[in-house]
Amino acid sequence: MGKEAFRGIVSHYEACFEEFGDSHLGVDWPNKADAETRYRVMLEVIREKTGRVTLLDFGCGLSHLYEYILKIDMNDVEYAGLDVSEKFVQASKTKFPKNTYYCVDILQEADSIPNFDYVVMNEIFTEKRDLSFDEMFSYFKRVVRKMFEKANRGIAFNVMSKHVDWERADLFHVPFDIMAAFLTRELTRKFVIRNDYGLYEYTTYVYK
């Protein structure tokens, strides 16, 4: 299942962009401060304190992660963006013409992109819209497996937590034990689950 099976999710984000423009609302984050918290946590997957690393922003949207990288002067990161939406890729290219961007369905065209030191997937798996949990989890596993192959050092992604006051049917809430079982069984035991940054989600780092 690639872009066509999940066109509802893609269409949702494009509709947000159409309504709210180049802002946190345009990628369906209700709070800008929380969005920046997510950017910080995503980038903390990088363990190296010195030396240049390459990073792929999978589902880059409007390149707000790159804007955050510039804001904090993280000069040792060589950024590239990928999105399945042509609208987001074109918008990002217009903003940052010197960056490399890919508009591909990774499940169909993985060979068309190179490997990177790190791959971050922010917000890719937080919303499932009309999909069932099993449909979304199947998609999640396929993408994570593929991007782990494309990462030389590690990946980061976030999902919604089960430990919340209430769950939304359109969000992707994943129990810790199901996440850990998948990673241990199919990828590696070298992972970190972060639930320490105050939002109703958690971020997982998976290392080679």
Please trace the helix and strand order, writing H or E for each element.
HHEHEHEHEHEHEE
- At the third CATH level, what is the topology name? Rossmann fold
Instruction: Find the CATH superfamily.
Output: Vaccinia Virus protein VP39
Largest sheet: 7 strands, mixed
Number of helices: 7
Proper CATH architecture: 3-Layer(aba) Sandwich
C-alpha termini separation: 26 Å
Basic shape: globular
- Classify the beta-strand content into a percent band: 15-25%
How many domains? The number is 1
**Percent of residues in helices:** 25-40%
Record the SSE blueprint.
Layout: H1 7-20, H2 32-43, E1 53-58, H3 64-71, E2 77-82, H4 86-95, E3 100-102, H5 106-109, E4 116-121, H6 133-149, E5 151-160, H7 176-186, E6 191-194, E7 201-207
Parallel strand pairs: 1-2, 1-4, 2-3, 4-5
Antiparallel strand pairs: 5-7, 6-7
Task: List its traits.
208 residues; Rossmann fold; alpha/beta; 37% helix; 7-stranded mixed beta sheet; disordered N terminus
Write up this protein:
The chain has helices spanning 7-20, 32-43, 64-71, 86-95, 106-109, 133-149, 176-186, and strands spanning 53-58, 77-82, 100-102, 116-121, 151-160, 191-194, 201-207. It has 208 residues and is an alpha/beta fold. The chain has one domain (4-207): 3-Layer(aba) Sandwich (Rossmann fold), CATH 3.40.50. Strands 3-2-1-4-5-7-6 form a seven-stranded mixed β-sheet, sandwiched between helices. β4 (116-121), α6 (133-149) and β5 form a beta-alpha-beta unit. The radius of gyration is 16 Å and the shape is globular. Residues 1-5 have low confidence and may be disordered.
